[in-house]
């Protein structure tokens, strides 16, 4: 079977031989939207603007060039977590910056421009705190900082067991899930962290839709209840909550694998008014996420009010991590593949250039899904993230060798060519490849036809008749053999051979 990878490589080789058309740039683009919390960042699909100068006074140890006011600790934590998982030792300045952002009471704000000034407790951020704890746990050491953070989480737990973005406000599924994962990273059982008898898992369960919900929404998580108390399924809340429900944290390293697809929430008589049991929570949300990925073309769709309709790269990344943590890597594979084929613009083409949070998310996905982080849809994610921050203290030999051998790999278009049944649709690279193949193939056939016509005009009548008969009844393979006597056609055969090698050795599956 001729795969899109073969066709794309053959088309490209044919294009080089013909020396003709140029292809349009069809890469998806995305830019962050300034959300209420950085856990929702990077979900817009508006065309990316050209890179702008970084704001004056950015700390030397910080990853990224954008304004860190809303996501400084968030993006730093994700970047450090992803780099450590890939055996990169970050610069001391990068770690020191994150540690220095912690407040005296143990929490983290989104960003502290002046660490000499005491934190305002009302502005401390549970999302930033939760990600910082997971980053410091991944780095190792830092027990004093993580212990203080756990105490801060305990002190700011709501009466229903949940956590809010800022202390003193109603809880939400995203913040609660991140807090649960942070407790796990710090070696603390969330079921033992309670407020008024309600644990962290109880708090998380208050946002999950149960048997009272329509069948197509059961198992999903709402961000928050509506004023009347009703819950509505939310994609990002479900994707992030699923990781905590499955007992997961960042980075995802589980090798657990269930043979069966995730099971939808069982609803027996009398279960309509009951909360989803914690034991069934991860399976129920995994089943819902799997259905949403299938319906969306192996990616989740934005459902944030006011957002431009389109793919939600952030939620899709969390869904992949959560499904793998829950033991369903098979159900996550196509979404991981879709991210490889389409996520480059989200990670690398924001208005401030590389988005370290998005790049780190893709890097975490690549490792969890057992894909090549040095060739994720054609992009060296490890180097892309390294280049977004201070020079690391140490990189593994594999990273150094890859950077030396392919210095432009971080500038690749990110068009991971895959089978249609793996990514649920056609990537930009696939469409370009098909278009080029059609054009080049048509040109080759026209060239062959002209050569036959010229030979027919100068050959004896009997020879002409034989040639016409061959042209009418011969196969495409016969034509290729006949045409292979010219230098151009021999090069075309080399292109087909190269396409076969590309398809079987591209390292993206």
From TrEMBL:
InterPro entries per UniProt:
SQ_cyclase_C, Terpenoid_cyclase/PrenylTrfase
Q: Which residues cross the membrane?
A: 428-448
User: Entry's Gene3D superfamilies?
Assistant: 1.50.10.20
Keywords tagged on the record: Membrane, Metal-binding, Signal, Transmembrane, Transmembrane helix
Signal peptide range: 1-27
Q: Where are the compositionally biased (Low complexity) regions?
A: 398-412
Recorded hits in SUPFAM superfamilies, A to Z, give: Terpenoid cyclases/Protein prenyltransferases
Q: What's the protein here called?
A: Squalene cyclase C-terminal domain-containing protein
Source organism (scientific name): Kitasatospora paracochleata
Specify the taxonomic lineage: Bacteria, Bacillati, Actinomycetota, Actinomycetes, Kitasatosporales
């Amino acid at each position: 079977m001729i795969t899109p990878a073969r066709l794309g490589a053959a088309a490209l080789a044919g294009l080089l031989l013909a020396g003709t058309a140029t292809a349009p740039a069809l890469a998806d683009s995305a830019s962050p939207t300034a959300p209420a919390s950085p856990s929702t960042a990077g979900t817009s699909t508006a065309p990316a603007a050209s890179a702008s100068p970084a704001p004056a006074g950015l700390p030397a140890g910080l990853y990224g060039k954008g304004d860190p006011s809303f996501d400084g600790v968030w993006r730093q934590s994700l970047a450090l977590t992803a780099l450590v998982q890939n055996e990169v030792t970050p610069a001391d300045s990068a770690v020191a910056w994150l540690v220095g952002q912690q407040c005296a009471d143990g929490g983290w704000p989104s960003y502290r421009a002046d660490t000499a000034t005491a934190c305002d407790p009302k502005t401390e951020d549970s999302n930033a705190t939760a990600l910082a704890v997971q980053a410091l746990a991944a780095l190792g050491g830092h027990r004093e900082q993580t212990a203080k953070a756990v105490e801060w989480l305990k002190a700011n737990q709501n009466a229903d067991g949940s956590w809010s973005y800022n202390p003193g406000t109603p809880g939400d599924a995203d913040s609660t899930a991140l807090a649960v994962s942070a407790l796990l990273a710090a070696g603390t059982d969330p079921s033992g962290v309670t407020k008024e008898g309600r644990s962290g898992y109880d708090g998380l369960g208050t946002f999950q839709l149960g048997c009272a919900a329509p069948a197509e929404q059961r198992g999903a998580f709402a961000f928050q209840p509506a004023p009347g108390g009703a819950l509505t399924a939310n994609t990002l809340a479900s994707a992030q909550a699923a990781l905590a429900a499955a007992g997961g944290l960042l980075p995802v390293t589980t090798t657990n694998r269930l043979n069966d697809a995730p099971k939808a929430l069982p609803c027996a008589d009398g279960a309509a008014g009951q909360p989803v049991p914690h034991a069934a929570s991860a399976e129920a949300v995994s089943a819902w996420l799997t259905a949403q990925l299938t319906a969306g073309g192996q990616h989740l769709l934005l459902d944030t009010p006011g957002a431009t309709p389109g793919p939600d790269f952030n939620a899709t990344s969390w869904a992949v991590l959560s499904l793998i943590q829950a033991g369903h890597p098979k159900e996550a594979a196509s979404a991981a593949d879709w991210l490889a084929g389409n996520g480059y613009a989200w990670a690398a083409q924001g208005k401030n250039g590389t988005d370290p949070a998005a790049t780190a998310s893709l890097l975490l996905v690549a490792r969890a899904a057992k894909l090549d982080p040095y060739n994720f849809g054609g992009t060296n994610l490890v180097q892309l993230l390294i280049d977004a921050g201070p020079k690391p203290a140490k990189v593994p030999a594999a990273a150094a060798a890859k950077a030396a051998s392919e210095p432009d790999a971080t500038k690749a278009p990110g068009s991971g060519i895959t089978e249609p049944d793996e990514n649920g649709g056609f990537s930009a690279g696939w469409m370009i490849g098909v278009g080029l193949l059609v054009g080049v193939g048509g040109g080759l056939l026209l060239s062959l036809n002209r050569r036959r016509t010229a030979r027919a005009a100068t050959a004896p009548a009997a020879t002409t008749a034989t040639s016409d008969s061959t042209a009418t009844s011969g196969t495409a393979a016969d034509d290729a053999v006949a045409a292979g006597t010219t230098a151009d056609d021999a090069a075309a055969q080399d292109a087909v051979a190269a396409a076969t090698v590309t398809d079987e050795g591209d390292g993206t599956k």
